[in-house]
Amino acid sequence: MNFILRSVYAIKKNKVPINRAFYHYSKLKLSNLVTLYSVTSPGDDFAESFASYVHSEILKKPWKIVIQKKNQTIEFQLCFHEKRCQEKTDFLKKLLSSKL
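Above: the chain's sequence. Below: its structure in token form.
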């Protein structure tokens, strides 16, 4: 995918201004990144993906972010059941089943 999400954690004091959250989550939905923190590095992408997969898929804990901006709403959920994260999902399933 030819999409680059600039690191939101490069912002002063590692905080995303709330007025930019709608923008960042809209862009995140176009990538195969699981969380905003996944943007920071490949290692953090793996750690966030692994932890989020265990949390949501194995432990069956819900994870959803809802952001409203004026008359717009965006819902962001983990992407393990979406085509954009299929490779990541397949890898984590194999890793956790010890069938690499």
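Helices lie at 18-28, 42-58, 86-96.
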